[in-house]
């Protein structure tokens, strides 16, 4: 059994299972639509932090147990003592918890795939949007419910949504609280793909396998460059590309890619 494997307590947990070069993280609290407690957020952060430096890994796959992906933060559990938060409490706490989770998914050099069925709300929605690829069931629901709860959006939603779907659609989701189905999410470009519920696991597995066979270092550098260049000028973007190209050309996978091209065969990348 992998050292990533954990047993889920009654309060919910994140199962970590390494399947070859794939780290599978399963949010396991189905009786609460996989809403995240502070401890579960910490588990996700810990798993991704460890994965970032684990050379045996090539893909991270995140899914939810049961019929839902993740319905966001469990605010009841977060405020279980019933006391009113101190002034500045959120400013001190969230950067090291929920915000850190989104940053890790966005910046880790491993590709991150999310499989979404049922609800993906609040932090759950933003976790799926921060992933490199999200495959959802056509009847899945993406929802940013912040204003309906009386507070403003968080966990990167105001950054992610305008970049993915444009300002008008972002405002529909964030200011009007419109729910977006899986099919519409795919049409908008909010996610990678929407498929029939019965085909969800098959499509996700195929995508994860494809990424696990990719040149991992070059893929991670490409992911970083794509993100960095969203705020860059064209000359800056070209410079970023040259720097990452210099690194990618020093990998064993680059040599394998050239050899496979010369020999007219499919490359067998090792993630090195």
Work out the number of β strands.
Answer: 9
Rg over CA atoms: 19 Å
| Helix and strand pattern | EEHEHHHEEHEEHHEHEHHHH
- The percentage helix is 40-55%
Main sheet record:
6 strands, mixed
Shape: globular
* Count of individual helical segments: 12
- Give the strand order, joined by hyphens, for the main sheet: 1-2-3-4-6-9
Describe the protein's architecture and organization.
This protein is α/β, with parallel strands linked by helices and 272 residues long. It has helices at 38-51, 75-78, 89-93, 98-107, 123-130, 157-165, 167-174, 182-188, 200-212, 216-228, 234-248, 252-263; strands spanning 13-19, 22-28, 59-64, 112-116, 119-121, 133-137, 141-143, 180-181, 193-195. The strands form two sheets. A six-stranded mixed beta sheet has the order 1-2-3-4-6-9, with helices on both faces. Strands 5-7-8 form a three-stranded mixed beta sheet. Helix 4 (98-107) runs parallel beside helix 5. Mean pLDDT is 91; it is low at 1-10.
